[in-house]
Peptidyl-tRNA hydrolase
Amino acid sequence: MKCIVGLGNPGKKYNKTRHNVGFMVIDELAGRHNWTLKKDKFKGKSTVETHDGEKVILLKPQTYMNLSGESVRPLMDFYQLAPEDVLVIYDDLDLPAGKIRLRQKGGHGGHNGIRSLIDHLGTKEFNRLRIGIGRPDTAMPVVDYVLHPFSREQQEDIQSGVKKSADACEWWMQRPFAEVMNEFNN
C-alpha cells in the first residue's frame, strides 16, 4: 500500500493559493480516476483505492499546513505504513513556477508543513515531490506570497507542473521511487 499526501490549507479562502499546490495534485489524481475524497478520522480528506492491483491512499490533511503531521502520522499508524510508502507533495519557493523535483529525504528547508511531518514521523526519510511556485518579485513578505493565488503569468506553468506531478504519482504507484526520480527529475 502507498500513500500520496498533498499539503495545503483547508477552506475556500486558500483554495487556489500557492501553498495549496499539493492539494491541486491530489485533486488532479482523484479527477483522473473518478475517486472521491471524504472527511475521515485522520483530520483529513482521504480515499483508499486500487490502481492496477496496488492499493493507494490519497490524503489532503485538513489541519492547516503547519500541523500536517497531526493528520499524516495517525493515518500511517492505522495502515501500518513505513515512511518509504509515503509521497508528500508540497510547494517550493526555490523552484521556478511549475518545475518539479523529487527526492527521498532531506530537511524542511523552512517549510512548516514538512517541519511538522519530520517532527511527527521522527524521520527526514520520506519521499517528496516539490512543485515550484517561484519567489515574489516584489517586497511582498513570503507568508503573504504563498497565501495568494498564482499570477496570470504563472497559471500555465503551474497547470503543467500539477499534471506532471500527477503523472509522477501514477508512475510511483507501479515503480520504485528511484525510477520515478530518474524519469521526472530530468
In short: The chain has six helices and seven strands. Residues 2-184 form a domain with the Rossmann fold fold (CATH 3.40.50.1470).
